Amino acid sequence: MFPVRALDPALQAAWLVSNLSAASVEYNTVMIDIEGDDWVTNNRTQADNRAFITALRSGLEAAGQKVVQET
Which ranges constitute the DSSP H helices of the chain? Predict the structure, then answer.
């Protein structure tokens, strides 16, 4: 998953899980790929970015996905 910073993270998570289900995709893991320069534009702080990722995680959990953090 390549989350879009300008869109609601919870809706993106729900959309992802919904589309995978609708397409009968079998999967064990969803990888969230965080990259690009959009994370530092428009005066976004580290706290803003952390809140976005936390909301994305919460959205995945609300959609019934187990979230495991690896660094």
Answer: 9-22, 46-62
For tokens 């999967």, name the residue.
Answer: 27
Evaluate if residue 17 carries a pLDDT over 90: yes
Per-residue pLDDT at 12: 93
Asked whether 59 and 13 are in contact (CB, 8 A), the reply is: yes
Overall pTM surpassing 0.85 (yes/no): no
Asked if residue 9 has pLDDT above 90, the reply is yes
Report the amino acid identity of residue 64.
Answer: G
Specify whether the CB–CB gap between 60 and 17 falls below 8 A. yes
Tell me phi and psi for residue 38, to 5 degrees.
Answer: -70, -10
* Nearest CA-CA partner of 68 in 40, 37, 35, 28: 28
CA angle 23, 29, 34 (to 5 degrees): 100
